[in-house]
Amino acid sequence: MFWNQIKECLSRDEMADLQGKRLRKVVELVYHNVPFYRAKMQELDVQPEDINTIEDIGKLPFTTKKDLRDNYPVGLQAVPQEMIVRTHASSGTTGKPTIVGYTRKDLGVWSESVARALTSFGVTRQDLFSVSYGYGLFTGGLGLHYGVEKMGATVIPASTGSTEKHITLMRDLGITGIACTPSYALHLAETMDELGISRDEIKLRVGVFGAEPWTEDMRREIEDRLGLKAYNLYGLSEITGPGVSYECEMQNGSHINEDFFYPELINPETLEKQALGAGELVLTTLLKEGMPLLRYRTRDLTTLDYSRCGCGRTSVRMGRILGRSDDMLIIRGINIFPSQIESVILSMKEFAPQYQIVVDRKGTLDSLLIQVELRPEYFVDDFPAMEKKKKMLIQRLRTVLSITAEVDLLPPGSISRSEGKATHVIDKRNI
Ligand code: DLL
User: Fold this and answer.
1) Is the CB of 232 under 6 A from ligand 1?
2) Ligand 1 within 6 A of 130 CB?
3) Which of 96, 150, 230, 317 could, after both became Cys, cross-link 92 (CB 3.0–4.6 A)?
4) Is residue 354 helix, strand or coil?
5) Using DSSP, how many helices (H) and how many strands (E) does the chain show?
6) Are strands 254-256 and 128-131 parallel, antiparallel or unpaired?
């Protein structure tokens, strides 16, 4: 089943032709409206007239997360503010988030991307579909929400939290589909066990998982414990949100919505095209108006497969995300940069710049522990005073990261000093 069979099954030549035309338009848009891109293109001595086919994309500059930060908050916006109808935000590498503005047309493209994905997963208008991603600045909740509405299933905006209430609703309403992070799916299964509710009492049949890396083992476990078929959905806020790519019934990679987002694979060291094997995924938005991005370096490492897929879609498939070419961590579906944690620690005079970030998985949920040394002058034998400092740090971390971390305050000198680069992150999860 297709949502938009014509676009999902274009011949490769037709697709390249469409991509070339759309690329030329988006280049014109940013050249004339975004000073950052005009300057970058002038540096490379490229004019919009030089972009005629999709192959010409190699002439264009890359865009990085740092460029977004340098142009904070809305320096890369390509249209007047009155055309922006929604704004989302995702984690930046330091205190400042990345702001993404959408025009009405951008929201249409986004919900079509998600509707295509849901149709490919076999969701129909008969389904009752629970969106259990966080609603808010994160793109997961609203992204899925409008995709489900567009394709016509019934959306239940459950969001996250209230897990027990959610399970009751699933059982009583007969909810058949769910979208959430894979780790939240496992948490749901665990909570059902605790409540003594078996998978036969609920009617879930299709699950849509993404926003964090997951493995085939996790897929099997989720399918087994919740009694559903689990599909992968990929995306990132800078480009649009969920819906950049999606699996089909063959489950042999995720089809990229290539008429909206043009993919390239590069070697993250040399920035050259990666012809074989895994590389960093680079995406160009072909229709976006609010914040169009040229050759955005996603930092996600993956593979691209152009061979024909048994489902009939002709679009390229990306493999699972194999890792990142930067140090971003995804904890309970939330993107966290170690640099954000460091800037909180350094902003408080009580703490030394010696710290460790320990990520683990307890049961099915990720945990985040920050071990930090106190400066000698603040290390006192006074339990309430120390507890107060700890609470302050937890509070500030929560404000910046949107997640609650555990904190261990350590006496000065207790973290072993390394002679080379300090290892600040210990990730004990096996994903
Ligand atoms: O996580 C959007 C999303 C929401 C995707 C719901 C899928 C479902 P960000 O918060 O900007 O956006 O995080 C984007 O998350 O660069 C990947 O590293 C990671 N990621 C997203 N989907 C997957 C996936 C959303 N299916 C970052 N598998 C991306 C592995 C994923 N990693």
Assistant:
1) yes
2) no
3) 96
4) strand
5) 11, 21
6) unpaired
